[in-house]
């Protein structure tokens, strides 16, 4: 089942005033789903556990209705309470193997990685996918110290391509500053051959916050991004 997950247009939510404004998170996600996002991560760094569970349940209903997986950022306990498809953990959160022990083999578990070493460890611990970044500086996550750019992302992809079976197999998305104006250039640059060394592993999708959550028309915006992502040959 989880081998079939489509990572091509990965929505990461944001509940902050700067991006969501006074709009309702669940309604904005519903619009994004109708526009064609293929997987959703509920990311809310400030709400209390009760609120997280309540919103996650509503999001899960919306996602399930369209066969789209819902993951929870950071909080394995919330994913467990809601019974959604998985979690996304960063370097400061519960690690992938601990999350796996709690959520089980069918859960989708992703990890943020900024270096080859972090990628190696996350795959060794059983991550299904890696969120590689930060690609470009972004107002959405201001405190990030690891802006790795196209070159840093390609280094990790090249490492994975030459790695173990699990490293070759792990799914990847890039994150940070991706929008409709740069999606095609980014995927082109990430996938460009690099003779004489091994070509980088293809990414499987792009993870996006503000270009969807902050859009005036989240449905139109995600529909446009969906069309662009469908034109990327590797996103199959
Ligand atoms: N992790 C690395 S960058 C980032 C996260 C959650 C935020 C990306 O936001 P945006 O608005 O798509 O640049
Ligand atoms: Mg985290």
UniProtKB/TrEMBL annotation:
Q: What are the residue boundaries of the Thiamine phosphate synthase/TenI domain, all occurrences included? A: 9-212
Give the protein's function: Condenses 4-methyl-5-(beta-hydroxyethyl)thiazole monophosphate (THZ-P) and 2-methyl-4-amino-5-hydroxymethyl pyrimidine pyrophosphate (HMP-PP) to form thiamine monophosphate (TMP).
Task: Identify its protein family.
Answer: In the N-terminal section; belongs to the thiamine-phosphate synthase family.
Please give the name of this protein: Hydroxyethylthiazole kinase family-domain-containing protein
**Species this chain originates from:** Ampelomyces quisqualis (Powdery mildew agent)
**Shown stretch of the complete protein:** 1 to 236 of 551
């Amino acid at each position: 089942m989880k081998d079939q997950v489509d990572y091509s247009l990965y929505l990461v939510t944001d509940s902050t005033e700067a991006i969501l404004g006074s709009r309702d998170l669940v309604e904005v996600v519903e619009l994004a789903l109708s526009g064609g996002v293929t997987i959703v991560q509920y990311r809310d760094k400030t709400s209390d556990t009760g609120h997280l569970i309540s919103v996650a349940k509503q999001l899960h209903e919306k996602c399930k209705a369209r066969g789209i997986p819902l993951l929870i950022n950071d909080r394995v306990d919330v994913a467990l309470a809601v019974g959604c498809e998985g979690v996304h953990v960063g370097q400061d959160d519960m690690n992938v193997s601990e999350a796996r022990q709690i959520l089980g083999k069918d859960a989708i578990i992703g990890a943020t990685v900024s270096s080859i070493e972090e990628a190696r460890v996350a795959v060794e611990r059983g991550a299904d996918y890696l969120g590689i970044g930060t690609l470009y500086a972004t107002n959405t996550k201001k405190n990030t110290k690891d802006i790795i750019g196209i070159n840093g992302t390609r280094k990790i992809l090249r490492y994975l391509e030459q790695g173990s079976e699990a490293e070759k197999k792990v799914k990847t998305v890039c994150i940070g500053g991706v929008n409709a104006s740069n999606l095609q250039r980014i995927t082109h640059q990430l996938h460009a051959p690099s003779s004489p060394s091994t070509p980088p592993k293809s990414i499987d999708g792009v993870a996006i916050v503000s270009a969807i959550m902050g859009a005036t028309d989240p449905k139109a915006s995600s529909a446009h991004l969906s069309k662009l992502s469908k034109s990327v040959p590797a996103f199959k």
